[in-house]
Specification:
With 209 residues, this protein is α+β, with helices and mostly antiparallel strands. The chain is built from three helices and 14 strands. The chain has two domains: 39 residues; 149 residues, Distorted Sandwich (Glucose Permease (Domain IIA)).
């Protein structure tokens, strides 16, 4: 049975555990308490809950836990898309999940800045990982974006890989943003700005018949 901790976080967790053990040697209540809180926070941040549910094949699911902060109309290769922006605080689960089954076309790492994740323009300025997926409704895009605290994007996807809806594919360490781009003419959105969502569980759109 898999321990519900993201493997990407294990190196950090090991170092924090080591620091906590050293803090015990100080026999100083404040120092021990500080490192105890730190290890609880880190363990919580890297939680990786098992989310095995029966998913509707005609539904698009959230790619991340967090809050919908923007829904924008944009173009990708001259076609209209809805950009659904999810802000992840440091208290959210940071595992990212596939919103709709398909085949990976490409997954590209783009260097950039580390501006605050709450800013509206970081999708063009910050370091990010852009993943294109060919699905039953055509191309959709998932973008993992770093923030002021997040400095590491983990993505396990490779070109031509087949994926399933809700499948985990990586995470962003410590406060970030995940954007999902959906073709306007293929879906009806089910969410609005301010909604709290759960990756792989919350339905964000239905596919038009």
């Amino acid at each position: 049975m898999r321990i519900p901790i993201a493997p990407e976080g294990l190196p950090i967790i090991k170092w924090v555990w080591f620091a906590w053990l050293l803090s015990l040697l100080t026999v100083h209540t404040y120092i021990i308490a500080t490192f105890t809180v730190l290890i609880i926070f880190v363990m919580s941040f890297f939680r990786d809950p098992l989310r095995k549910i029966e998913r509707d094949p005609n539904t698009v699911y959230s790619a991340a836990d967090g809050v919908i902060t923007q829904i924008n109309d944009v173009d990708i290769d001259g076609k209209p898309y809805s950009q659904v922006v999810t802000f992840l605080s440091v208290f959210n689960c940071h595992v990212n999940r596939i919103p709709l089954a398909g085949k990976i076309i490409q997954s590209v790492h783009i260097p950039g800045k580390f501006l605050a994740a709450m800013r509206g323009d970081i999708d063009k300025k910050n370091e990010r990982q852009e993943t294109d997926i060919e699905t039953a409704i055509g191309l959709i895009r998932v973008v993992q974006i770093t923030g002021a605290i997040a400095r590491r994007i983990c993505c396990e996807l490779t070109p031509n890989q087949d994926t399933t809806t809700g499948e985990r594919f990586g995470l962003i360490r410590f406060g970030s943003r995940t954007d999902v781009y959906l073709p306007v003419d293929k879906v009806d959105l089910l969410i609005k700005k301010g909604d709290k969502i759960k990756g792989g569980l919350t339905k964000i759109a239905t596919i038009k018949s």
